[in-house]
UniProtKB/TrEMBL annotation:
Protein name: Metallophosphoesterase
Organism: Candidatus Limivivens merdigallinarum
Alphabetical keyword list: Signal
Start and end residues of each Calcineurin-like phosphoesterase domain: 60-288
GO molecular function: hydrolase activity
Domain of life: Bacteria
Leader peptide range in chain numbering: 1-20
């Protein structure tokens, strides 16, 4: 009997030791950033202020856009040619120190709470293309954020260029991460953040109806759209985009790359009209920063691509 008890105790001890070793190995593997990579990660802050007369408090919003996360590790069988292309895109989306967007996101998501934000705006193209691995990497970072996140997707967030997947499944998996409605609403006591999802496509009639209901709240609106809007009074952004993007004005507007249909034109008229509650527009897409007046009341802030190590910081105050 004593021998049986002694053997059982010994066996239990060995099991506990093996379990501890496995746990230590897992914990060591979870740290994917080396010390040198952490030291190489830097942020260049682009600070802007939006003034809304009459609001009592001050708010801080962080803006991240065009990060283009590329996760190269996968258990899926993919052709070598595709692997090589994915690897090339991974290497192309890196800051001046050579830190790729995937590693930048792991580091940046650890820093976000230190800024004391009231919300985080993800203004499109956070991943370079849809894949379960890219979404999982994005989600790992989002899980660290303790404030509301407004994530307006664009073509890269939905793009299935390197994986065969139906659009319904993609949208379902996207919705599991963040609100994936056509129009996203985040309310604050003094103003509203309204996100236009999938802004590389035409506005839908359902989206237009949702906007009309939001307008009825009669609160100031900060509009988030990945694709910028063309100004009614200034051709500066139009010309700059054409200069840097092969003679293409990658904006929504007349004679632009994104030419509005009837429904989208109604949306633009709602945003830019005299009775519009919109006080500012936040966008990305162009991979360069620009600030422009859309009309005599609305300023548009185009933020540079975050894969370059850029972070937008917006202060909203009276």
């Amino acid at each position: 009997m004593k021998r049986n008890i002694s053997f059982a105790v010994l066996l239990l001890g060995l099991c506990m030791m093996l379990s501890a070793c496995r746990s230590q190995t897992k914990m060591a593997g979870e740290e994917s950033l080396s010390d040198s990579q952490k030291e190489a990660c830097t942020l260049e802050e682009d600070r802007k202020t939006i003034r809304i007369p009459g609001i009592k408090d001050s708010y801080r919003l962080l803006v991240i856009n065009d990060l283009h996360i590329v996760e190269t590790e996968t258990e899926r069988e993919i052709p070598k040619e595709t692997k090589d292309e994915i690897q090339a895109r991974y290497e192309s989306f890196a800051d001046t120190s050579g830190v790729a967007s995937r590693e930048q996101w792991e580091w940046l998501s650890d820093q976000i709470q230190d800024y004391g934000p009231d919300a985080v705006v993800l203004a499109g193209d956070l991943v370079d293309f849809y894949s379960p691995e890219n979404l999982e990497t994005l989600k790992d970072g989002l899980d660290k954020i303790e404030v509301p996140v407004i994530y307006t997707r664009a073509d890269h967030d939905y793009g299935t260029w390197y994986i065969e997947e139906d659009r319904k499944t993609v949208k379902k998996q996207e919705a599991a991460i963040c609100d994936n409605s056509r129009v996203i609403l985040q309310e604050f006591p003094d103003f509203l953040i309204v996100g236009i999802n999938n802004s590389t496509s035409q506005m839908t009639k359902a989206g237009l109806r949702a906007l009309k209901k939001i307008w009825e709240k009669e609160k100031p609106v900060i509009l988030i759209t990945h694709v910028p809007l063309d100004s009614l009074t200034d051709r500066g952004l139009y010309e700059e985009s054409k200069k840097l993007w092969g003679d293409r004005a990658l904006l929504w507007g007349k004679d632009c790359y994104y030419e509005p249909n009837e429904t989208t034109q109604k949306y633009l008229d709602m945003v830019l009209g005299e009775d519009s509650p919109v006080v500012a527009v936040i966008s990305g897409h162009l991979h360069f920063p620009y600030t422009i007046q859309l009309n005599d009341r609305i300023t548009e802030y185009v933020f540079d691509a975050s894969y370059k190590g850029k972070l937008g910081i917006l202060t909203v105050s009276g």
